[in-house]
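A.,

Following up on our hallway conversation. Structure tokens first:
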């Protein structure tokens, strides 16, 4: 992998250009099983070892079950953060599912440790916020962040997210809930 993105003329990193690539049920199942070869055979983009790391397999198991029960959710749930310029899978991002009955979608994302601090989380968040703002059924966008994850909080707060509560997640523990109106990002 190359080093960090070159700085722009303002001294900040150049913005990343990513898209979220959605996966099929066979790709989710292969990722959940830790089978990178099978995942790559089913994926529209080439995935790296990071995608079958133990800490990511729980997400893939959950999405595999979700898509098996509701195939239409595949267009909403966690996909691949794809760097268009480098033609490289750099992480995972998506919604936890289609909008609920109140029009809320929850965002989740993670960047490959080898690709962090290059603007990919920001680019993925912006892509997801843009889509939410243009989906007629979405009114609210939510993120839930561990209280000790200051980097994620700092990023979310730059996009207007405000604290609305707390929740307990069996996998991640205590999370602070932040929300923003989807229309905030039109």
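Then the amino acids I'd put at each of the 186 positions:
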């Amino acid at each position: 992998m190359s080093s960090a993105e070159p700085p722009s003329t303002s001294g900040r990193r150049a913005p990343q250009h990513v898209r979220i690539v959605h996966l099929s049920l066979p790709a989710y199942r292969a990722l959940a099983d830790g089978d990178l070869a099978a995942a790559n055979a089913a994926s529209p983009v080439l995935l790296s070892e990071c995608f079958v790391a133990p800490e990511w397999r729980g997400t893939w198991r959950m999405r595999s079950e979700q898509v098996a029960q509701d195939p239409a959710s595949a267009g909403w749930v966690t996909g691949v953060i794809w760097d268009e310029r480098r033609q490289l899978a750099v992480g995972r991002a998506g919604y936890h599912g289609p909008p609920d009955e109140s029009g809320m979608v929850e965002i989740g994302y993670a960047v490959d440790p080898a690709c962090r601090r290059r603007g990919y989380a920001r680019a993925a968040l912006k892509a997801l916020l843009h889509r939410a703002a243009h989906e007629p059924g979405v009114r609210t966008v939510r993120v839930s962040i561990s209280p000790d994850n200051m980097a994620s909080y700092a990023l979310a707060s730059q996009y207007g997210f405000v604290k609305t509560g707390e929740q307990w997640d069996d996998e991640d523990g205590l999370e602070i809930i932040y929300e923003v109106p989807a229309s905030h990002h039109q």
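Helices lie at 25-33, 36-42, 54-69, 120-134, 150-157. Curious whether your intuition agrees with the design.

B.
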